[in-house]
Amino acid sequence: MSTAIPRSFPHRHLLGIEHLEAADITQILDLAETFYALGERPIKKVPTLRGRTVINLFFENSTRTRTSFEIAAKRMSADAVNISSSGSSASKGETLLDTAKNLEAMRPDVVVLRHSFGGAPHLLAKNLDCAIVNAGDGQHEHPTQALLDAATIRRARGRVAGLEVAIVGDIAHSRVARSNLLSLTKLGARVRLCAPWTLLPRGIESIGGELTREHTRVVTRLEEALDGADVVMMLRVQNERMSGEAPRFPNTREFSRTYGLSARTLAWAKPDAIVMHPGPVNRGVELSPEVADGARSVILDQVEWGVAVRMAVLYLLGGGSTAEASA
Amino acid sequence: MARRLAHEIVEKNRGTRGLALVGIRTGGLLLSNELGRLIAQAEGQAPAMGAVDIALYRDDVADRVRPAIGPTELPFELDGMRIVLVDDVLYTGRTVRAALDALADYGRPRAVQLAVLVDRGLRELPIQADFVGMHVTTDPRERVKCTFSGDGAEAAVKLYGPAEGT
């Protein structure tokens, strides 16, 4: 790690895994290892980003991601300001761009944005003079989640390349699935996507072009998805994004029986397979409590790596002097 | 040169009890390991060894390529220890300033001393070394480079003019 040639990070923003090369991802993961070790010392704070300002602008509910970004910024000695939609002028009818322009006038170095519309962070990146980090945009991408998942897998299994990863559940509404599909295939893993046809968007395996098409298998039977899998990533059924639509599956109990992970179904995966979930978990729906709390669950490791990965991202983007680099 | 430094360190600290050598990554680490080996050889007892990476404590994060960060390893309790920070070249003093800040986050040593192979002058902070291999008068445009043989036993110091060796 220390012998690696210093490499400048060629991006000013983190809008999606889509824009990253495998080397960019590896650079973030390597840095995250350093920051992870920092979390184990009594004094967890370093002065690296002293005097910098990070604004967490969250237009969707979030506990984990917002807290994780806030802790990451504070451990780097940056000043973190949190804005959530309920307490903001958005509820008075201000547009996203107006809100963002007003925040820009207060001269932040980084704006972390979560928004229910895909592409919202890209809009800010085009119009604001500071680094933008996408903390989840609609059903599009959630890059830091994919990065922390890759870091967790790398620590648990020693590598990502060559692994078989099953992503199971509500693929249709999941930005986590999209970002992970892109990052895992870029890092050399093979991915199985598993859901009922009603929760599988057509062409999902081609979102990353040739690379994802060749390394992804789309299946509808859980047993087929789990057979020989090294990693099982379960997704939450996002009922809040389906309100007012025709139902995508008969009822929760049937979904749970067909696509839920329990001790019985986990036996189809490799004996040392790890179980992941981006949270929040619907206990008893996609994941049985015995598996969620079991020895093979790395769900809380994911949360811990989340802080380390976000520190790495802020470190690479927060200095704010790479003006010539593009997104 | 390294042998004399090792001797001076032991002399000033009256042995190796409560003594720790902490190399500043990456140049200082090689010298630190060599000094540790020489001290162990002469005294029959090795001092505690550690390494510190100062990338996160720099005061110029915005101006440069983000360096790779190696691990900071201090596998001993710092409180009450006599720490000798080791670096290859002492120049502006900013690296040492950063290393002192890093050490302070791990504990409260009894004393911190500084050992360097080359002091090239041109300080920008009020910092000086306790143990110096050699003093060289330099110009800011020149570069000083220390190279170590594979096992760190041999050290060579080279001075490059402004135009040469990048």
Please, could you describe this protein's structure?
The complex is a heterodimer of chains A (327) and B (166). With 327 residues, chain A is α/β, with parallel strands linked by helices. Chain A has two domains: 17-140 and 304-318, Rossmann fold (3-Layer(aba) Sandwich); 143-298, Rossmann fold, CATH 3.40.50. Helices cover 37% and strands 14% of the residues of chain A. Chain A contains twelve helices and nine strands. Chain A has a five-stranded parallel sheet with strand order 7-6-5-8-9. Chain A is globular and about 55 Å long. Chain B is α/β, with parallel strands linked by helices. Chain B contains three helices and seven strands, in the order H-E-H-E-E-H-E-E-E-E. In chain B, the strands form two sheets. Chain B has a five-stranded parallel sheet with strand order 2-1-3-4-5. In chain B, a hairpin with a 6-residue loop joins strand 6 and strand 7. In chain B, helix 1 (2-13) crosses helix 2. The longest helix of chain B has 17 residues, at 27-43. Chain B is globular and about 45 Å long. The model of chain B has no long low-confidence stretch (mean pLDDT 86). Classes of the chains: A alpha/beta (327), B alpha/beta (166). Chains A and B meet through helix 1 and helix 12 of A and loops of B.
CATH topology of the largest domain in chain A: Rossmann fold
Measured by DSSP, the beta-strand proportion of chain B falls in 25-35%
N- to C-terminal separation of chain B? 26 Å
Query: For the record, what CATH class of chain B applies?
Result: Alpha Beta
Give me the CATH fold name of chain B: Rossmann fold
What class would the helix/strand composition of chain B place it in?
A: alpha/beta
Q: Give the biggest sheet of chain B.
A: 5 strands, parallel
CATH architecture of chain B: 3-Layer(aba) Sandwich
Radius of gyration of chain A: 19 Å
Shape of chain B: globular
Give me the number of helical elements of chain B: 3
